[in-house]
């Protein structure tokens, strides 16, 4: 049985997002993560454990304990 860390409650997982640990509900997918982070899905890229995940796979890609994500948002300008 996996041990809970100090930031974690039962039913949660700990992932690293942009170098910061964060507790999230187990069973969360990338679409739900984008909603929790209040990001615009059209203007971002997500790398999960070193692999860029296509937008069409966000809803079916579930997060698991220890995942490492980099979330990059696009900013317009000139």
TrEMBL record:
InterPro entries: Beta-grasp_dom_sf (IPR012675), Mopterin_synth/thiamin_S_b (IPR016155), Thi_S (IPR010035), ThiS/MoaD-like (IPR003749). SUPFAM superfamilies: MoaD/ThiS (SSF54285). It holds the Pfam family ThiS. This is Thiamine biosynthesis protein ThiS. It comes from Planctopirus limnophila (strain ATCC 43296 / DSM 3776 / IFAM 1008 / Mu 290) (Planctomyces limnophilus).
């Amino acid at each position: 049985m996996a041990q809970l860390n100090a930031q974690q409650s039962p039913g949660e997982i700990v992932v690293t997002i942009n170098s910061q640990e964060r507790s999230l509900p187990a069973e969360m997918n990338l679409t739900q993560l984008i909603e929790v982070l209040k990001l615009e899905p059209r203007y971002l890229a997500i790398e999960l454990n070193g692999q860029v995940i296509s937008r069409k796979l966000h809803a079916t890609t579930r997060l698991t304990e220890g995942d490492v994500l980099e979330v990059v948002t696009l900013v317009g300008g000139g």
